[in-house]
Amino acid sequence: MKHAISFILNQEEIQLTVDSHRTLLDVLRDDLGLTGAKQGCDTGECGACSVLLNGVVVNACMVLAPEADGAEILTVEGLADEEELHPLQRSFIDHHGVQCGYCAPGMLIAAKALLNRTSRPHEEEIREALVGNLCRCGAYPDIIKSIQVASRARR
Amino acid sequence: MHTFDYIRLHSLEEVAQHLAQGPGVRLMGGGNVLLLAIRRGEEAPQKVLDVKTIPELRDVRYHHNQGLKLGAAVPLQHLATGLEVRRHYPLLYQTAQKLASPQVRNRATIGGTLAWASPVSELAAPMLCYDTVCYLWSPRGRRDVPLHAFYLGDFRTVLMEDELITHVHLPPPPQRSHGVYLRQTVRHDGRRMIAATAVWAMRKQQNLTRWRIAVLGVDDRPKRIPEAEAALEGNPHPEDIQRALEIVQAHIHPQDVIYARADYRRVVLNALLQQGIHQVIHQLQSMRS
After folding, report:
1. Which domains does chain A have, with CATH numbers?
2. Where do the domains of chain B lie?
3. B residues 221-260 lying closer than 8 A (beta carbon) to A
């Protein structure tokens, strides 16, 4: 079955036709060329495909594309403001939150979801917010530090 | 992935119409279980019906005389953030913080999680302690089933082919009650559970009463152990606690899994239960009478 859907992606309106069985991740990566969200485990465990769907963090591999109809979606590509990196991105660079980088887009989106609801999270809250994001380099301490510093830098 | 037709539903009548068309139709809440099963080739539905868009399944209502009524399509994240949950059902609130990950909680629904009926369903533990009742609906009518009678074991429930959970109801919580949820898992997100338990009781004058003991990972379903609850009634002495622990051991049937043998799961459950019972007693006794 085909679905004509429209949604807001990184503040831009998108209209396209998708098959029922395709995932939001498939559409982002293959149809729209946004390869920031990664296809890691494809089972909803690793968090590498995290995106914000109507303001809350979800695994895009576990969302059907037609479910995105009418939704607002933010991917890592929409974090930066024109030329300026988002404070989280800046902080990940400054504090080595990126090692191989595969998990970074998901980590950034999960961190963004956390900062949307808690402006100054303590370490335990950051750890809980990242429980669905795996980093196989084991860069967790630097990732947590990056988020802590970014949250302090925000007004 | 296997192809199917995705259909958004807007009323229970629409659910009935589709289900009446025979097999090959599956209901979807958050899709965490169904989409995985389709991807693995274990399920091949022709139609996937999204029930999250049915307005009455998104209801959340709390009233101090009537308790909490939650629609089946309410996401688990609501249980980890809702003010009425935090204030009146703290055991549910605390457990919900530990359920999987934010990504999963934002999608997974209460109804879908209960209907999946996993023996390690962490949502079930606090819900069993709060005497939750499931409202089941089919074109033939509505029936109410207490959660403890909802499970049949091995991922099976009393749900008929044409039936779905529309709501769950938690009775008003008594004053001066306390519960704890304790678990031992291999992974921090709750995967690979060895054993878990929720223990709850209330204080009435000097007595500790209405004990609830729910256990996970040690049988074919999440379950309460009413015989052990009865042994704790009143003001349990160390020998009563010991007896309750022995009764629990006699009523569970843990299985060997790759990361924990059955006898280890028994020992772990025993330790968690002992800790849980003591914590509940301590909290209730330190409340002012």
Report:
1. 2-78 (3.10.20.30), 87-153 (1.10.150.120)
2. 5-50, 55-170, 177-285
3. none
> Cβ separation of B101 and A47 shorter than 8 Å?
yes
A87 touches chain B (CB under 8 A): no
Beta strands, E only, chain A: 2-9, 12-19, 50-53, 56-59, 72-74
- ipTM value of the model? 0.96
Architecture of domain B5-50: 2-Layer Sandwich (3.30)
The whole-number average pLDDT for the span B265-269 is: 98
Q: Tell whether A115 lies on the interface with B, counting CB pairs under 8 A.
A: no
**What is the C-alpha to C-alpha distance for residues A140 and B188, in angstroms, rounded to an integer?**
14
Q: Which CATH number fits domain B55-170: 3.30.70.20, 3.30.465.10, 3.90.1150.10, 2.40.50.100?
A: 3.30.465.10
Residues of B with Cβ-Cβ distance to A56 under 8 angstroms: 77, 102, 106
Interface test mutation site (partner B, options A125, A131, A133, A134, max chain B beta carbons within 10 A): A131
B28 or B23, higher pLDDT? B28
The alpha carbon of residue A53 and the mean position of all alpha carbons in its chain are separated, in whole angstroms, by 9
Query: Contact A37/A25 with Cβ under 8 angstroms?
Result: yes
Say how many CA atoms lie within 13 Å of B146 toward its Cβ: 9
pLDDT at B201: 98
CATH topology for B177-285? Enolase-like; domain 1 (3.30.390)
- Which of B4, B107, B189 has its CB closest to that of A62? B107
Cα radius of gyration rounded to whole Å, chain A:
15
**3-state SS class at A129:** helix
Q: How does pLDDT run across B213-246, given as a tens digit for each residue?
A: 999 999 999 999 999 999 999 989 999 999 999 9
